[in-house]
Write a structure and sequence with these properties.
Blueprint lengths: L1 E2 L2 E2 L10 H28 L3 H22 L6 H8 L1 H4 L6 H5 L8 H25 L2 H31 L18 H25 L4 H21 L4 H22 L5 H20 L4 H25 L16
């Protein structure tokens, strides 16, 4: 169904009634509210009440739209069928892997609005497809929903732009080092050692709860050991990177505590693996010299392989990706 963050719509059935489209929309609004509520609870646990309140506000907007749709989605068979088939219609941002992207990246208002814009864009594409696939009254109704999402996306972009200019775009806690701080191979090796060491620990903790992580854990541990030796030979990082890595080390302790309280940490681990690749890739795109470029490219390659291994575990049949009763995302 989903491909590279876009909603793949080719195999969706043609909507047969306004009630059916309304049922799909209602189910998606409820799922979005559930996601935002779970994010907010988790971020409060991370000590970010301001952003948690923002997530609750966005969840309330989805709850209000669900209330309106209640009157349009009848309680008949079509509504039940749409609810059962919800996974076929969900935008990628509301899938388990897509929701993991919010993880710690949502610790800033900018990150929250970026996620909300992405969700709204994907929802707009879905309604546009349903409008194109349907006839007459059903098409008009789906077009109306698409128009509402388009207007909502425009409003969210304004709020995202305001957050961009008025606040940090990276979370203060849990953030990866800034790629712009890499001024030498020693800086990159020190940052990679901290990142790979943290991921090795997370993979080991996840492996104690879920099968399928042994290969990725072993490879990451060996990479951390090799980076330790290389970092010692290259010398320590410069002042700015050293300060950044000290903050990164502190945030790792909060991450470790959160992992202990998760029955199934795979989704959050996947988001962490993707952030590692993003950091290495950003360094490779603006290298300070050839040595940094080659090192960053090698780290990017191994990071992609780790994402593949962790994603396979995340998509394994025994991975439910459910949300527990206490609201923790699993």
């Amino acid at each position: 169904m989903h491909d590279s963050g876009d909603t793949s719509l080719a195999n969706l059935p043609e909507p047969r009634s306004v009630e059916e489209v309304a049922a799909i929309a209602l189910a998606m609004e409820r799922e979005a509210e559930r996601r935002y509520s779970a994010f907010a609870r988790e971020l409060r646990a991370f000590g970010s009440p301001v952003v948690a309140a923002l997530l609750e506000e966005l969840g309330g907007e989805h709850r209000a739209r669900a209330g309106r749709l209640e009157a349009e989605a009848t309680t008949g068979e079509r509504r039940e069928n749409a609810s059962r088939d919800l996974a076929r219609f969900l935008p990628e941002a509301l899938s388990e892997n897509g929701a993991a992207a919010c993880d710690l990246l949502g610790l800033t208002p900018y990150g929250v609005f970026a996620f909300a814009v992405r969700l709204t864009q994907q929802t707009f594409r879905l309604y546009s497809y349903l409008a194109a696939a349907a006839d007459n009254r059903v098409s008009d109704y789906a077009e109306r929903l698409a128009g509402e999402e388009l207007a909502r996306a425009a409003s969210l972009r304004v709020r995202r732009r305001q957050a961009y200019h008025t606040g940090p775009r990276q979370p203060e806690s849990g953030a990866y080092p800034a790629a712009s701080l890499v001024e030498s191979r020693a800086d990159l090796l020190a940052a990679a050692l901290a990142i790979e060491g943290r991921l090795a620990q997370r993979l080991a903790r996840a492996g104690a709860k879920e099968a399928g992580f042994s290969s990725a854990c072993q490879a990451t541990r060996e990479r951390a050991e090799a980076l330790h030796l290389a970092s010692e030979r290259a010398g320590g990082p410069a002042g700015p990177m050293a300060e950044e890595l000290a903050r990164f080390s502190q945030s790792a302790q909060a991450t470790a505590l959160a992992d202990q309280n998760r029955d199934s940490p795979t989704r959050h681990l996947l988001a962490d693996c993707e952030r590692a690749f993003t950091f290495y890739d950003a360094v490779a795109r603006t290298p300070v010299d050839e040595a940094v470029l080659l090192q960053a490219q090698e780290l990017s390659r191994t990071a992609v392989e780790r994402i593949r291994q962790v994603r396979e575990t995340a998509n394994a049949p025994n991975e439910t990706g459910r949300v527990e009763d206490n609201g923790a995302i699993t």
